[in-house]
Write a structure and sequence with these properties.
single chain; about 280 residues; alpha+beta; four-stranded antiparallel beta sheet; three-stranded antiparallel beta sheet; 12 helices
Amino acid sequence: MSINFSKNAWVILNPIEQEIKRKIEAVGTPLKDWDINIYRGIVTGCNEAFIIDKATKNALIKQDPQSADIIRPILRGKDIKRYGYEFAEKWLLFVPWHFPLHRDNTITGVSEKAEQEFLKQYPAVYKHLLQYKTELSNRNKAETGIRYEWYALQRWGANYWEDFYKQKIIYPCIMASEPCFVYDEDQHFTPAPGNIITGNNIKYLLAFLCSKACYFALRKYYMGGGIEGELKTNRLLILPVPKPTSDIEQQIEKLLNAKKYDEIDIIVYRLYGLNTSEIEFIETQ
């Protein structure tokens, strides 16, 4: 038995766990050194106002077809599984600060002009949110009605919101029983505490993140926080993943498309240089 110290945490490892960790770190490059970005999901401050069901979505669009422009499908943490998701027909009213004048950089605080434009351009969504004006106005008192309008999302990804429209990985920040990462190219948004990963080699990274070897490593060496199964961004960023050759990346993408996940696990074990006894150990955990 040995104690392994890192910058942020320490774990007690037996010899085989220590050797697996050594091999993973010997061949992998920490995700912080990859060409990727990890961003937090949208913070509404009042889910009951901004997250709607299918019936409400359809009613808003029936009242005003333009409502569809700001209604986005979402994946919540509970919807995301290993390699896939179960869409629960939940939708987000995507209303940035100062909407619909959110691209006007001269607006620095609450804007009556923006509110009037919102009412004019999206009357059905405005009326829907008006039902929750008291709850929405009672959010962060230092910001609501000061930095942004009562009807706006609390945090809308001002510097990265367009990344929700790109190919990405979506994952919850708590996963206790399986690696819950899914590839998305259908422009789903996610509410916090969900996160997204965008950048290069996204499908290849998905395969690793969902693999048995990486999930073992995450649970054993890199997860940690105040909640069991919590995956903090600063911990995920130190996960070592081998950089791919073009052949390996193509091979893994074909296996992903064919849903041959067991074969992906075998490739990941091989790329980490794990032997039979180490693989058997991981498989039994």
